[in-house]
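G., the chain you wanted modeled:
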Amino acid sequence: MKNLVIVSFPAKPETLETLKEAMRRALPDTRNFEGCLSVNTFIEDSTNTIHLIEDWETLDHQATYLNWRVENGLLTDLDPLLDGGAAAIKVVLCGPEHEDI
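Predicted structure as tokens:
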């Protein structure tokens, strides 16, 4: 991995299936965005949370992507599906692997 980013989307229990479908529609654009090397999805069943494990060429690429998502309204669309709204989305910018530890 070049630059690890973890994004977590905590769904309301009754909206998890709808959130999954929204991700199915949105993630092809994410995977094709300049600088995106990969996106893998995981679901934490105990909390109804979808986790995206992303690998980006640079963290600047990911920041450009996130700005694009905000501008095109995806976060507004996801807001009613998330436990705590869009503000509950957690983004962890891990960056590059530290092989010396």
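Residues 16-32 form the longest helix (17 residues).

Shout if anything looks off.
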